[in-house]
Amino acid sequence: MARGVSKDKVDMWLRDVAPSDELRRWFNHDPAKWDEFKRRYFEELKNNPKVQVLLQLIKKGSNITLLYAAKSPYNNAVALREYLEKLLTSGGD
Asked: Is residue 52 part of a domain?
């Protein structure tokens, strides 16, 4: 993951895997809401076709950088990494 990376350094920008604006605003990086945020975000990701794009890139050995703007360690990039790791270790696509 990286913070402070400019868009011109990015080959592919999959903005569609970010949490919905509604979910992001509700969460507001509140650590007390972290588990519920992840549950809701994972629900959004479950039906998101861009997740398959990420999984295919990872399986091909491509380097993936998950970008985030928050200073908090409770952010969507951390949650997305957890979600992808679960899918990859479970063999689920």
From this structure: yes
The boundaries of the domain holding residue 29 are: 7-90
Q: Are 58 and 93 a contacting pair, CB within 8 Å? A: no
* pLDDT digits 0-9 by tens, 3-49: 566 667 667 778 899 999 999 999 999 999 999 999 999 999 999 99
Closest CA to 7 of 65, 49, 80, 82: 65
- Global pTM value: 0.84
The reply to whether 27 falls in a domain is yes
Number of domains in the chain: 1
What's the Cα-to-Cα distance from 49 to each of 33, 60, 65, 76, 93, rounded to whole Å? 26, 17, 18, 17, 10
Residue 2 lies in a domain: no
